[in-house]
Each structure stands twice: as C-alpha cells, then as structure tokens.
C-alpha cells in the first residue's frame, strides 16, 4: 500500500515571506553615523597649573560667538558667509610669515574658538565646520584630490600613509576654549 | 489549407515559481542588516547641518550620547538633558558611564572609544561643554558631533 505523502501547501509561502519582508523593511533604519570628528584635549587636571604659554597675537585667529549667536572674528563683528570665513582661515594658515599681522607658519598658526554658554549648538557646528573645512581643503590640495575624496581617505584605516602625508606640516590647531558665562 | 498559419498561442506569463526564492533572498538581506534599536530616544533630535562630515568607521567602538530638550516637557521640563542608553544622567555621572562602556570593549582598544554626540541644534553650548569636560576626565577624547549633510553653495 502506497504511503500517503503528506503535502505541505506551499502556495502561501510567498505571502508569508512577503509579510516578514515587509516587517523587516519597516523596522530597518539605515544608520547615518556621520558628523564632525574632534579630538578633545587632555583633562584640565592633567595640565600643569602654572603653565603659561605666550602665543604671539599674530599666530592666533580668534573667533568668538556670543549668546545671541553673533560672531566676532579677529575682534571685528562678522556677518559674512561661512565660505568667506573658511577662505579667511585658509589665508591665515598659509600665510607663512608674508603678512606681518598674520601667522608665521602653518605649524604655529592656531584657530582659537570661544563660545558663550548660551551659544546654540547649531551655530557652533556651523563655525566648527567652516574651520575644519579650511584644514581639509588644504590637506586635499596637498594630496591633489577633492575635499570630499580626502575625507573618505581620512576615514579609511588602510590609507593612513596618504592621510599622514597630506597632513604633514599642517597640524589641525583648532582650540576650543571653555565657554564664557557672560550671557550677552 | 490557408497559406497563412495562425500565430501560435504564445503564453505571455512571467514565471512565478522563483518568486519565493527572490523574496526570501530580500528577506534574509533585511534580516541581517536590521539592527533593533535598544533604546528609545527621549529628547528632541534635530541635527545641525554641516558640510565636512566624516563617517564613523568602526561601529563597535562607537557609543551614543543624546542631548536635547526632553520630549515630555511637562514631566522633565524644557531644559536640555543628557540621555545615555535609556536614562537621563547628570554630567557628574558621565565618567562612570564611560567606564562601563569601555569595559564592554576589548582591552587594547579601550582608549579608542568614540563618543557620538547626538546634540539637538537648539541645545546650548553650556551643557555640551560640561559634558566635554567630563569626557576629557574619563579619557574618552575622540568625539563626533552628529550632523546632516548640507550642500555647499
């Protein structure tokens, strides 16, 4: 006597698979882990208390933001675009002692950045972005690639050699000072 | 006999027998890539815009910290708060939290821990710099301010 072959109906398999597919499609979130990377300085306690470094005025590019998100660049109120600010910073870094008012060399040049406790994060990111763009564009042109391409290289751990080569002689000196508590 | 033969009846159907296979393939793809979020975000999150974004490469080293105005303002007030995992914390608790997170990593990569700061655009610098100071004390000094891409003009 032939054995009855138990058949599982497989017509609905596609439906079930579709249902599961829809569930995972909906729950999937594409992680967008992108942003401005920053290396923080060592803790304040680790620095010697009586340390006092005199930095000549000409090697400092000062950017200040108050609690109304208004900018003060090198002591003057600034209302221009962030693109212009980037170009100003690039000029400052690559001065190489040409202009006696501007930096002596890229190694000595420091972009100093001070905010107030009331400054919004939005403005902070905008200005930090402008400052980092100045450096990234210099690095990119050192390597002969576009700034977008350079950032891909920088994120890739296998391309350290190119990354280090492009940064040679141009340390990213962006100093973010403790915010003031003035308010106004 | 007519000279012209009738056109043969050609079936114009797409074979559906391989459909389940195709669907299963897609299903497995999404099953593998889906990451269930382990914590619900309880603060407002509107990321600032920036142009010079860099990708975070090693996901295993990344830890998230959220700052923003609480979604339930009637319960927690309007002041921006710091959220990690599922709870609100104060700046003084950050060192302890970083140490817990570091303990999850392999010993040799603990100093490479990356903090992804998901800060709302409207949050103020004051609270953020308090967090930064604590992160410096906790020796978690690589941070990333999460932001969305803005097209350069």
Automatic annotation (TrEMBL), chain A:
Keywords: Cell membrane, Membrane, Protein transport, Transmembrane, Transmembrane helix, Transport
InterPro entries noted in UniProt: ExbD (IPR003400)
GO BP of this protein: protein transport
Gene Ontology terms, MF aspect: transmembrane transporter activity
GO cellular component: plasma membrane
Topology in the lipid bilayer: Single-pass membrane protein; Single-pass type II membrane protein
Principal subcellular localisation of the protein: membrane
Keyword Cell inner membrane part of the UniProt annotation: no
Compartments where located: Cell membrane
Coiled coil (residue ranges): none
Family label: Belongs to the ExbD/TolR family.
Protein known as: Biopolymer transporter ExbD
Taxonomic source organism: Chryseotalea sanaruensis
TrEMBL record, chain B:
One Gene Ontology molecular-function label: transmembrane transporter activity
Keyword list, A-Z: Cell membrane, Membrane, Protein transport, Transmembrane, Transmembrane helix, Transport
Claim: Transmembrane is one of the keywords in the record: yes
Signal peptide: none
Membrane topology: Single-pass membrane protein; Single-pass type II membrane protein
GO cellular component, one term: plasma membrane
Pfam families: ExbD
GO BP terms in the entry: protein transport
InterPro entries on file: ExbD
Subcellular location: Cell membrane
Family per record: Belongs to the ExbD/TolR family.
Protein name in UniProt: Biopolymer transporter ExbD
Organism, as annotated: Chryseotalea sanaruensis
């Amino acid at each position: 006597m032939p054995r009855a072959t138990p058949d599982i109906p497989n017509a609905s398999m596609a439906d079930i698979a579709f249902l599961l597919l829809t569930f995972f499609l909906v729950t999937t979130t594409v992680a967008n882990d992108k942003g401005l990377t920053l290396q923080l300085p060592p803790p304040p306690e680790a620095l010697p208390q009586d340390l006092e470094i005199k930095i000549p005025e000409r090697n400092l590019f000062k950017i200040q933001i108050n609690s109304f998100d208004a900018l003060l660049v090198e002591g003057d109120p600034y209302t221009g675009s962030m693109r212009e600010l980037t170009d100003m910073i690039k000029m400052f870094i690559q001065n190489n002692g040409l202009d006696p008012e501007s930096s002596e060399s890229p190694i000595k040049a420091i972009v100093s950045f001070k905010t107030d406790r009331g400054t919004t994060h939005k403005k902070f990111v905008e200005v930090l972005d402008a400052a980092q763009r100045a450096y990234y564009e210099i690095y990119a042109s050192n390597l002969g690639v576009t700034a977008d391409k350079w950032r891909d290289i920088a994120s890739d751990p296998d391309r350290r050699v190119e990354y280090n080569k492009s940064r040679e002689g141009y340390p990213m000196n962006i100093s973010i000072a403790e915010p003031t508590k003035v308010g106004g | 006999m007519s000279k012209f033969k009738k056109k043969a009846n050609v079936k114009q159907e797409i074979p559906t027998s391989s459909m389940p296979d195709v669907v299963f393939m897609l299903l497995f793809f999404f099953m593998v890539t889906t990451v269930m979020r382990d914590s619900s975000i309880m603060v407002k999150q509107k990321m600032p815009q920036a142009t010079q974004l860099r990708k975070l490469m090693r996901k295993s080293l990344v830890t998230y910290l959220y700052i923003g105005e609480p979604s339930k303002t009637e319960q927690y007030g309007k002041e921006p708060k710091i959220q990690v995992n599922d709870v609100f914390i104060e700046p003084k608790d950050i060192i302890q939290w970083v140490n817990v997170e570091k303990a999850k990593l392999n010993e040799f990569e603990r100093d490479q821990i990356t903090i992804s700061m998901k800060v709302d655009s409207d949050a103020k610098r004051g609270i953020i710099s308090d967090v930064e100071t604590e992160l410096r004390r906790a020796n978690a000094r690589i941070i990333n301010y999460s932001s969305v891409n803005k097209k350069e003009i």
